[in-house]
Amino acid sequence: MRARVSVQDSALRNGNFSLLIDPVQSKDAGLYEAWVAHNTDIQSCQVELGVITVTLSPHSPVVENEPLLLSCNSSHQASLVETCWFHNRHPVPTSRTFCSLHGAPSIFQPAMSDAGSWCCQLRYSDKKVISATYNLQILGFDGPTNTVVYAPAGSAA
Q1: Predicted confidence (pLDDT) at residue 143 exceeds the cutoff of 80
Q2: How far, in whole angstroms, is CA 122 from its chain's centroid?
Q3: pTM assigned to the model
Q4: What are the chain's domains?
Q5: What is the pLDDT of residues 89-109, one digit of tens each?
Q6: Residues 108, 110, 113, 118: is their CA dihedral positive or negative?
Q7: Which PANTHER family does this chain map to (predicted)?
Q8: Which of 7, 42, 81, 130 is the most buried (most CB within 10 A)?
């Protein structure tokens, strides 16, 4: 983790012993403990890091009209009760375009309108609600619906 972890030296003088992990990975989940010794005084604290991941299959880039699957997983230990998905802050409906497979939306023919923020929200038996967001980018044509375009001779088209 050494390449992804840092402690802000300037913050240490003010009593801030925060550990920054960037980027966080699934394998980073677990219990972290800090020990700080000053003169004869020793302070300690424990922090549990939970990790939630949203994955895309196949991996980016997504091409318009090629099927995709979004999935969401968390390191939380309680039983999963519900998975909800939101696209640009709106609940994702189950329809002919979106089908939920164990809480993972499949988009059979993604369009440019499917690009944007996808948020998965996981609700657990211990009442915890955890969420993560994935910014979906789709490669495709977002131009006129008419396939015939006229341009004046001598101009750029």
Answers
A1: no
A2: 12
A3: 0.73
A4: 5-49 (no CATH), 52-139 (2.60.40.10)
A5: 998 876 545 555 567 888 888
A6: positive
A7: INTERLEUKIN-1 RECEPTOR FAMILY MEMBER (PTHR11890), LYMPHOCYTE ACTIVATION GENE 3 PROTEIN (PTHR11890:SF18)
A8: 130
